[in-house]
Structures are given as structure tokens and as C-alpha cells.
Write a structure and sequence with these properties.
- The protein has about 425 residues and is α+β, with helices and mostly antiparallel strands.
- It folds into three domains: about 5-205 and about 365-430, FAD/NAD(P)-binding domain; about 210-280 and about 350-355; about 290-345, no CATH class.
- It is built from 13 helices and 22 strands.
- It has helices spanning about 15-30, 45-50, 60-65, 75-80, 85-95, 115-130, 185-195, 255-265, 285-295, 305-310, 315-325, 335-345, 405-425; strands spanning about 5-15, 35, 55-60, 70, 100, 105-110, 130-135, 135-145, 145-155, 160-170, 200-205, 210, 220-230, 235-245, 250, 270-275, 350-355, 365-370, 375, 380, 385-390, 395-400.
- Strands 1, 2, 7, 8, 9, 10 and 21 form a seven-stranded mixed beta sheet that branches.
- The longest helix is centred in the C-terminal third of the chain and has 22 residues, at about 405-425.
- It starts with 6 loop residues before the first strand and ends in an 11-residue tail after the last helix.
- The chain binds flavin-adenine dinucleotide.
- Flavin-adenine dinucleotide (FAD) binds near residues 13, 15, 48 and 177.
């Protein structure tokens, strides 16, 4: 069947990871499925994930993965049970994409190419019988007496909008970060226009802006440091790992992981700060002893070389500035209160958080279609009949580690399965349930 010829069983909006899995699963169960994608190529965002390597999932157990998810991890239990990390790996391996597990149980394609994953999923969906229509931008949903019946689509090749009828619809339009990939938040507008609540949208997994800015340290990446988030003077959370100094603040894995709480607190007008423990392996007593040894070794010397023995070179100027001492000041000046201050700075180098990166650079969108309006057993809307949701359009987001893609794959699979059951009925009982 071609687009425009009669009614489809299932129409899926958005060919990202959620839409591809939803469409493929529905077609696998015998539904006639049309997948609409507004961009020229499906899965543009997936192709740039994990710095082009795609951290597709994580090998942690289900309960452990749920802990990485916000705001309501329990919502995902059925979706994860329906399709989880090993199912994804099996599906990809059957398509010829081998995978490997790295530090932190993160799973990547063995080729280190996100592109391979995207192409494999497109091929898999096609092999299930999904018709993929690129350059097809959905503009509105058609709802008749509270039930989804189709949608209106603008096509690049034609001035006349295409009206598509379908028994079931699945919205998998993604979030609104990295809009150049096609994820421009259209799904939120469709959902809101059809009576769904939208939880406030915020950029998440994003760099932060800080005061003071240390231009000399720009480009420095610190590994094995401990970063702590403070809100209104109270310690909130800490992350051990990598922190980068940027032109306007801090970035890197630890910053991204703390960014969600920080962004929310800033939006609520609260005071946000971050502190860096540059010597997490040394407790205060051990650090004191280490400093005493270094001071001894630099008797008669200056602050610059002394600080270099304790710090990466780009941070020496930062410390001199904060201590109010020039690099050529005698090291002997680091006594009494200055010595205490230096010990404090090494354990708690403080930055005020003044802002965060924009939608263009956020990895995910926090907020979205309210989970209260979605049935977690089926991903079906509680507001509109025959309409399902999957992926980042939902009010779900997670830490770095492959969890965001697993959310998209799992909710997509479950939405596709439920939509197919609804559209083509009970004879599906005997159909294969494995990828
Ligand atoms: C730089 C970057 C790196 C990332 N790295 C990782 C990682 O390594 N691991 C991880 O787990 N997560 C990662 N993520 C997050 C992950 O990519 C997303 O969570 C995931 O892609 C969400 O999948 P989705 O299918 O819900 O939405 P999307 O991937 O956003 O796909 C939605 C699709 O819908 C289409 N669409 C939107 N509106 C319409 C419309 N009106 N009509 C037709 N089509 C429409 C869009 O063009 C798009 O193709 C990363 C994100 C970014 C930006």
C-alpha cells in the first residue's frame, strides 16, 4: 500500500530510535505500517550520539537502570520488561552489527560507528515491511470524537498536504534539543493540542556557565576529580570523573550528570554552586601532610613551582589569583591562613553557577508529555483513543550511560506492539514475540 491509498493500520511519526522500533515491532506483528520522517534521512540524532559512536544501552540490571531515570522510573518497568538491553543487542547482531561493552557497562557498536546502528535499524524496519516516507512533516493530528483517525502531512515534493488515515497513531517525535537533527518539539504541540498535559521542558545533560571564568584554564580536562553540586548552600550530589574547563564555565561527563538538578534549581531561582575536589584520593589529614612535604621541598623557592607540584599547570594561575599571591611570591608566604586557604581550595574549588548551555547543545530534554496521561502497560494515551507515545517526547530522561536510547528503544517497541494489537486485533496471539 502507498501513502494516501486508504487507511493504514499504524502510522508512526518520527523515524528516530523510538519510531523505528515502534514501526518495526508493529509491522512484525502483521500491521501495515507507515513511518513518517520530516528529514531526508531517518535517525539523524542517533547518528551523532556518543560522539559518533552511539552508546546504545547499558548492561546494568533493570532495577539499576531505573535508578538512572527521572522523574518516574517505575513508569518504565513494563517497557523495559518487554524489550531490554539484551533484546536490542540480539536485534542488532541479527542485522550484522556486533556490539561491545565498555567502562561503566556502556554498550557500543563494535565498529564505533553510530551510523551502523542507524542503518541497521532502518534496514530491520524495512525488512519487517515498514514503509518509510522521508521529507514528510506531520503538521496536525486528526481526532474524531476523542479517537485518533489520521494526520495531515506536508511534503517537500508537493504543495498539497497529504491526508493520511490510520487506525492507530504513534508519536515518536523526540525532544527539542539539537533541533538541527529534526527534533524541534513538534510532538509537544500535537500532544497539547489534543488535551495532554506537558511537564515544563528544560535542557538537560548540558554544560554550565560559572563565575569566576578562568580563561587561562580553558581547554583543560581533569580526570578523576570529584564534582559536587550545592543548592542554597546545601550539598546535593557528587560525581567522580571528568571535568572540562570551557570559555564560559565547566563541561564534561560529571557536569552533564549534575546539570539536570542544577538547571531545575536555577529555574526555581535558587542559588547554585559547584565545587571541585582536585585531590579526592587524599583526606584532609593526608593532604596536609602532602603539602607539608611539598613546602619543605620548596623552602627558599617561589609559589609557582610549589603549586605546579600540586596542580596541572593551567590551574597554577587560578590558584595564584584565588590566593592573592603572584607565582614569583616566596613559597614561605603559604603559611597560617594562606596554608589553610590553599588546603581548602584543593578540596573545594568553588564556582557559582550562573547559567547553562542552550537547546542547541543539550543532549536531552527533561519534561514532556505527562506520564499521568499515558498508560505504562501500553504507551497508549489516556486522553485520545488509538494514540500512543514513545521516546523522548515523554516526560522521561536519564543520565549519560546509554539509558536515554534504551528508553527510546523500549517505549518504541511496547508502543508498536500495543498499537498493532489494537489495529489488527486478537489474531496476533500466535505471532512471534522475539526480535
Ligand atoms: C549529541 C547527542 C549525543 C547523544 N548521545 C547519546 C548516547 O550516546 N546514548 C544515549 O542513550 N543517548 C544519547 N543521546 C540522547 C538520544 O539521542 C535521544 O534520547 C534519542 O535519540 C531519543 O530518541 P527518539 O526516537 O525519542 O527521538 P529522536 O531521536 O529525536 O527522533 C525523533 C524523530 O522525529 C522526527 N520528527 C519530529 N517532528 C516530526 C514531524 N512533525 N513530522 C515528522 N517527523 C518528525 C525528527 O526529525 C526525528 O528524526 C544523545 C543526544 C545528543 C543530542
Amino acid at each position: 500500500m502507498k501513502p494516501g491509498e486508504g487507511a493504514w493500520d499504524v502510522v508512526v511519526v518520527g523515524a528516530g530510535p523510538a519510531g523505528l522500533l515502534a514501526a518495526g515491532r508493529a509491522a512484525m506483528l502483521g500491521a501495515r505500517v507507515l513511518l513518517l520522517e520530516k528529514m531526508e534521512k531517518p535517525a539523524r540524532k542517533l547518528r551523532i550520539t556518543g560522539k559518533g559512536r552511539a552508546n546504545i544501552t547499558n548492561m546494568k540490571a533493570l532495577e539499576e537502570q531505573l535508578k538512572e531515570i527521572q522523574p518516574e522510573p517505575r513508569f518504565l518497568r513494563q517497557a523495559f520488561q518487554a524489550f531490554f538491553n539484551r533484546d536490542l543487542i540480539a536485534l542488532l547482531e541479527a542485522q550484522g552489527v556486533a556490539t561491545k561493552v565498555e567502562r561503566g557497562d556502556r554498550v557500543f557498536p563494535a565498529s564505533d560507528l553510530a551510523w551502523d546502528v542507524a542503518d541497521a535499524l532502518v534496514a530491520w524496519a524495512g525488512a519487517q515491511g515498514v514503509e518509510i516516507l522521508p521529507h514528510a512533516r506531520v503538521e496536525r493530528l486528526v481526532i474524531h470524537e476523542g479517537v485518533f483517525t489520521g494526520l495531515g502531512v506536508a511534503r517537500k515534493s508537493s504543495r498539497t498536504p497529504l491526508e493520511i488515515e490510520a487506525r492507530c497513531g504513534i508519536l515518536a517525535t523526540g525532544g527539542q534539543s539539537y533541533p538541527a537533527t529534526g527534533s524541534t518539539g513538534d510532538g509537544y504541540r500535537f500532544a497539547e493540542a489534543t488535551g495532554h498535559r506537558i511537564e515544563a521542558l528544560r535542557p538537560s545533560l548540558v554544560r554550565i556557565e560559572t563565575r569566576p571564568v578562568h580563561e587561562g584554564a580553558q581547554g583543560l580536562t581533569l580526570k578523576n576529580v570529584n564534582l559536587t553540586l550545592w543548592i542554597d548552600g546545601k550539598k546535593q550530589a557528587s560525581e567522580f570523573g571528568e571535568v572540562e574547563f570551557t570559555a564560559r564555565g565547566l563541561a564534561g561527563a560529571s557536569v552533564l550528570r549534575l546539570s539536570r538538578k542544577g538547571v531545575d534549581a536555577m529555574a526555581a531561582g535558587r542559588m547554585v554552586a559547584m565545587t571541585l575536589d582536585l585531590k579526592p584520593a587524599l583526606d584532609p589529614a593526608k593532604l596536609e601532610a602532602r603539602l607539608a612535604r611539598d613546602l619543605e621541598a620548596h623552602v627558599g623557592g617561589t609559589c609557582g613551582p610549589l603549586l605546579r607540584s600540586l596542580l596541572p599547570t593551567p590551574l597554577v594561575a587560578v590558584f595564584c589569583e584565588r590566593l592573592g599571591l603572584g607565582p614569583s611570591a616566596p613559597a614561605a608566604q603559604i603559611q597560617g591562613s594562606k596554608r589553610k586557604q590553599l588546603l581548602g581550595l584543593l578540596k573545594e574549588l568553588r564556582f557559582e553557577v550562573t547559567g547553562h548551555g542552550s537547546w542547541e547543545e543539550a543532549i536531552v530534554t527533561a519534561g514532556g508529555v505527562s506520564l499521568k496521561d499515558i498508560d505504562p502497560r501500553t504507551m497508549a494515551s489516556r486522553k485520545v483513543g488509538n494514540l500512543h507515545f514513545a521516546g523522548e517526547v515523554l516526560d522521561l530522561d536519564a543520565n549519560t550511560g546509554g539509558y536515554n536510547l534504551q528508553i527510546a528503544f523500549s517505549t518504541g517497541w511496547l508502543a508498536g506492539e500495543s498499537a498493532a494489537r489494537q489495529a489488527v486485533g486478537s489474531w496476533l496471539g500466535g505471532a512471534s514475540l522475539t526480535p
